[in-house]
Design a protein that fits this description.
homotrimer; globular; Ammonium transporter fold; 463 residues
């Protein structure tokens, strides 16, 4: 447990020190136990770095998953706008995290926030090494992994948080307002949450545990989405005056399913990479556990949602099952490195149930979350962060403190930000005319499927 | 050849022993040939484990490929049900393999079957290691790879077998019956076949060779699908009374193509990972050969199908070419580790031809296989298992014994199971009314593409 | 810089020698600095080989990206043909590169061209090693990576070049003519360009720098496409007699977006793998830089295209932003291994701008490039090759010499080849009747979306 704790994410600085000490320990141990030398420092460096890059590439792929999920979930008249928002948010979030966010999250943390250094780059010794100066090798190896490989892995996480907001607010949020919000989420809000936790700040000091980000990534995205939906309001006609809810079926169910499979695959990188190392047998074993638990929790989320779908919703519902997979994944994300794998089944199944009821609850509260992102990422994220107390020794008060403080901060700042955006001439929401016509035709001058006969208003019996 | 044989899959127990001996050998060799020490045991452990996880993730991705292939192949009125069946089967198969299947396949094999231990988990020494007890490191390393990384890799294979059944029986099989069948396939049928072979049972003792599962995975799925199609029967109206066959074109050809590309990519994990190791130069070289042969065989399957498409079918046929890729992949799966790569071209091309004629043959037998899974996975699987005799020293009688015994067992048990499911109140097949309306609307209360004007009956000129 | 230069791609032969010397150096250094032994030769071999295979698999995945991009960009009446062309080109290019291309590119280069050896296979020592003869280990390790893993990585690059041609000429090029062109591109044209550069030929001797192929892969594909579009001509009705251009909106925008995400993911393999090694800390650091720069350039391409979209085109344009991502990726491909990452932002943004204006320019020249492949791959490719002079010490005259000589060669040979194909009975272009009806119905006897009501001629107001 100790080794894992040290190497797991809450305190990268401690981890760096620990990793830096390992070569020294290996050196001291060398002469007497040469046969048990273990992974040599340079090999460990290569493996750790490669793991960040490969797992990070899988997490980048999750952006495609969110895009397919959202583009299939909205009405066709807004599908192109969803595509633009998603490729835009990934680009903007990545640039913002490069120019400001990463240093705010990790550098020189005073327990509350990092420093607003501009840019982020390799260490001087790394620059010298790739320029051919081998004398700096040991200085490079001390870091345990390449500086920018860690940046790459952290950057793709930011995009995930932004994607969550996109899905909830689909079909009526103003594109420019959304991009401004994304910029500030990636440059400021998420990095500050990160500075409290993975950056080694006050929540990390308290012992807050969140292995891959049930709270830090998913609930952060979920709170920001919840604030957005409260300010921006529901889609026109979603909630009828008689209190009933108008169904808004996804326009392309197969794309939604493809999105879920992409996210499931990407989550292996999301959780597996959050071990933050691959340079020892202990790391390799732990990553194996992480992937197994991740997969079992998702599978259990599907089966749980399938089982309760008819009693709760009156019919077998595909979308509930798909969201069940995501809820299982979010639930296990806070602590997927335990060894009794049946717990993953239980945690994931409960996540699937929470999400199913959560979707109904939001509808009752007349909050219009197009893809169910708040139940999936926020509700299951809270559950997952608490589940750490059961399986991974988390302290329930500390976990609650983390959930609450991050919730208050992210929700509060996001709410103010959305309100401020609503007051600009641009507004947070498109005009009634644009919404009725669809953002694709009205704002982009295009249709997503121009050759198919569309009947976008076929369900719009009551406006 | 010897090293490869030891490390290749048929006998993991032997392989484990061999891998466990390697560190010892390295230790003995250490003082005198320090410069040729090779991969140290812990690095080897990390590499083997990482390979299982990365290749396994690629195989999981194949589920998305099967889903796209099937959802694009069926009429739109059943596409959502296909999505539900596929995410359901992956979830159910994974849970069944965790709770029962894996131990039945690998633990304590009496040459026929494993033990029905519940659950499967890491070794005690692995638990101690991740809890921080470094003294158990050598005990952990003896296994050669993390226990659960192997489980992960084997688990994704089960899902592949179940996916094959889904495609053949699309558009009329009852969802619950299909899920029950999937459960039993993953918990019992597939693990028993696995116990005979990769689990070290009687077929392995005879010398049966099936590197990544042309027979063990693909033919198993194919036999189960064939039994299913014989019991469940063809779709309504597929075979007209005058003996002609009603064409049922795929509703979304681009999704079918996407599915094939996903499967092609995933197959690099399927075959490459079946080397079961990455911890030595010999393993790395072998995996390189495996990927090259896998790619050449698929390419040759495409070109062969393209070439014979017009003579055999009267027109250039895209779907034949796509199935040709899969048939090439299945054909090479039994023995992709040979060094004369032109044989991969020949084997894959023959697979493509077999599949093309097989699709015609099934139609003549009035067996309605929606996606051509029986020709692709069963016929090409048999061919691939025999092709091992040409390129990888397989004994033709042993290979035939394996093909026949697995065929009789899987087909027989599956047929009985489908018959039993047909006798339940639920039935193995949906009602005529549901089939005509489509499973999406009738059972899920939804449409896959609700905003597009559909003409589901436009080709139904003769019922 | 030296180490990187040696290991970077221009001179594999030099790199092989250098890599082969490293074990020797390690051996000499062993007794005195055992603790700093670094990656042992066999581990290095495994890591280098594995990197080729994993990165190569990601590049193979780019073929799916091109397919989705193109199938979504064309009118539905030609989408199935696009699928067939893409799976066909990947298969044909791979076989051609196996039978002829690779050896022409790398073996026995007289500074101009390789040798037309048939086939390509593992070394004799590799064959012995996998057959169990451990005595050849050091001979195997001398190569630094498995022979066929390099073949695999180079093979997937050929397919990329061929994919570029497919997109430009969509909707009217004859399928057989296209396949013949693909065969010759993969067997002869691309390998000759490769022999001059990565094969160690005269351009490499001059010092031409092209890390992952802005010119060698992307411009080669772009020049071949440009020659094709000049010979084959525009689609019927694309350019009206009054000088106006008829808009041809993509039929499935979400698929186009999916294709872009796939390409972005695959590009991590394209550029990251082009480091050609993973066996040292310097390699790992460099690959990290490559992935970071690749991602930043793509993101900057999106944001730049988004910013200039309204001023230049009169509206926010999703397709411009998607092509901006690709242009950013192509721009950074010639030299992505520098350490001042803000340059990636600048280079990618300029690429996005060039591409946006390039699309307009081609329309003015009445060249009908269906997916904008010439601006994306050729124009941004030239820019990227010149940008190397700014960030990676390239000599501007040498870079210009490389751009020009490859341009003249590829464009000239391609133009002659397309002219020759046009003179065959088959022709380079389908008949007017086929083009009007669509290649799917006319040549494949199928529709891509048969159950959807299509109105393929809805925009064809003026023929």
């Amino acid at each position: 447990m100790t080794l894992l704790n040290i190497l797991s994410r809450p305190r990268p600085i401690v981890a760096i020190v620990a990793i830096a000490l390992l070569p020294a320990a290996a050196f001291l141990a060398w002469p007497s136990v040469a046969h048990a030398a273990g992974v040599d420092p340079e090999t460990r460096f290569v493996l750790n770095t490669f793991a960040f890059l490969i797992w990070g590439a899988l997490v980048m792929w999750m952006c495609a998953g969110f895009t397919m999920l959202e583009a299939g979930s909205v009405r066709t008249k807004n599908a192109s706008m969803i595509c633009l928002k998603n490729i835009g948010l990934y680009s903007i979030a990545g640039l913002a995290f490069y120019f400001i966010g990463y240093n705010l999250m990790y550098n020189d943390v005073w327990h509350v926030i990092g420093v607003p250094d501009n840019l982020h780059g390799p260490s001087d010794s790394e620059k010298a090494l790739v320029a051919g100066d081998d004398s700096v090798l040991s200085a490079v190896l001390e870091n345990g992994y390449s500086v920018m490989s860690d940046w790459f892995f952290q950057m793709v996480f930011v995009a995930t948080a932004a994607s969550i907001v996109s899905g909830t607010l689909a079909e009526r949020v103003n594109m420019w307002a959304f991009f401004v919000f994304t910029l500030l989420l990636a440059a400021l809000i998420y990095p500050i949450v990160g500075a409290w936790t993975w950056g080694g700040g006050w929540l990390a000091a308290l012992g807050f545990q969140d292995f891959a980000g049930s709270t830090i990534v998913h609930s952060t995205g979920g709170w920001a989405a919840l604030a957005g939906v409260m300010v921006v309001g529901p889609r026109l006609g979603k909630f009828r005056r008689d209190g009933t809810v108008r169904p808004t079926p996804p326009s392309n169910v197969v794309l939604v399913t493809l999105g879920i499979f992409i996210l499931w695959l990407g989550w292996f990188g999301f959780n597996g990479g959050s071990q933050l190392a691959l340079g020892s047998a202990a790391d390799a074993v732990a990553i194996g556990h992480v992937l197994v638990n991740t997969n079992l929790a998702a599978a259990a989320g599907v089966v749980a949602a399938l089982s309760i779908s008819r009693p709760v919703l009156g019919r077998i519902d595909l979308l509930t099952c798909l969201n069940g997979a995501l809820a299982g994944l979010v639930s296990i994300t806070a602590g997927p490195d335990f060894v009794e794998h049946y717990w993953a089944v239980i945690i994931g199944a409960i996540g699937g149930v929470i999400c199913t009821f959560g979707i109904k609850m939001l509808e009752k509260l007349r909050l219009d979350d197009v893809v169910g992102a708040v139940p999936v990422h926020l509700f299951a994220g809270i559950w997952g962060t608490l589940a750490v107390c059961i399986v991974a020794g988390g302290n329930v008060l500390v976990q609650l403190a983390g959930i609450a403080s991050i919730g208050v901060f992210v929700f509060g700042v996001s709410w103010l930000l959305w309100r401020a955006l609503a007051l600009t001439p641009l507004g947070a929401r498109v005009s009634r005319q644009v919404e009725e016509l669809g953002q694709d035709a009205a704002e982009l001058g295009m249709e997503s499927y121009p050759e198919f006969v569309l009947m976008p208003e076929m369900m719009d019996d009551e406006e």
